[in-house]
Amino acid sequence: MIAALSITGLIIFAGIYRLHTKFQLATIESVRQAQEKEKFREILGFTAGVAHEVKNPLNSLTLLFELLEKKAPPELSRQVRLGKIEIEKIATIIDRFSELLKPVSLRKEFFDFNEILSDEINNLQSEAASRNIKIDLKFDPDLWLQADRFLLSRAISNLLKNALEASPPGSRVLVSAERRKKALVFSVADQGPGIPAAQQEKIFEPFISTKESGLGLGLYLVKKIVEAHGGKIYLTNQPSGGAVFTFEIPGGHHD
What is the pTM of this model? Predict the structure, then answer.
């Protein structure tokens, strides 16, 4: 009887211990997420202030360089054009920062996902050829979706460009689109070095990039677009090398 009670007590204690441990882990994760959200709010608030303060003088500089471009002597025209290009680069960076602050507003329409996929691949074929990289496409036919056509085009373009930049000359980028149950599943696989384990958990956060000149905004914007559609995006590394970015959006179906 005593032995049975002892065993019962141990079982109850083990159950309580597991519940306590689970509660502690959930609390720690909740605190971590709250800290991450607060960090993002601080970063985005700072970004908004910088964008606002810089935009007006930058517009003035743009007008000044346009005037100089018209009046500059031939020997200075090249330097003026280069200066104007650099200002345009700064303006682009600020615009991309500003995108982080805006909630994603969807304009949904019914369309064949393969149409925008083909368009984005065609737009990057010259860049792929210059890098000696082949893009292989595999897709289900007539894959229709009710979504924001423009925003999904941007998400596809970002993922394709990243794959081309990560892939070595002579390699391939595999692009696929299919329907799984009631979701559209899109993936891009490259043959680059993959994403280091230390960066995988934060790769979709803003200002995190594996590229020396990267701003770390592209994947964050892709994540915002996918999640605004009620979907999810994730990363895996292939055993043979290379990264695979996949997003799933509910509602994909055949015509």
Answer: 0.65
